[in-house]
Amino acid sequence: MCFICSLERTDFEKEGIFFIKHTEKEHNTWSYFFYIVYLEEKDSMDYNGTESDIMTKIEHDDISWFPIGKA
User: Which single residue of 8, 17, 20, 26 could bond 12 by disulfide (Cβ 3.0 to 4.6 Å)?
Assistant: First the structure.
């Protein structure tokens, strides 16, 4: 299962998409991790609208900004 979108490997294989390519390129867990670290290190006064919204969600343990069920 993809940690980011929660879709199963079989969902990708049915569409002829390589699961490993999906998890390495489209929904790379490390990219999401580094983005969160980037936001935590960045001065909140310098956030743009999207960054501010996502950081608020992170602070409230709200994962709705993840593309769950979407790939």
Answer: 17
For the chain, what are the domain ranges? Answer: 9-59
> Largest Cα–Cα distance in the chain?
45
Residue type present at position 15: E
Specify whether the CB–CB gap between 58 and 39 falls below 8 A: yes
- From CA 35, how far away is CA 31, in angstroms rounded? 6
Please check the confidence at residue 71 and state whether its pLDDT lies above 90: no
Structure tokens at 44: 């909140």
Tens of pLDDT, residues 20-57: 999 999 999 999 999 999 999 999 999 999 999 999 99
Q: Which residue has the tokens 């409230």?
A: 60
Tell whether the model's pLDDT for residue 3 goes beyond 90.
yes
- 3-class secondary structure, 11: helix
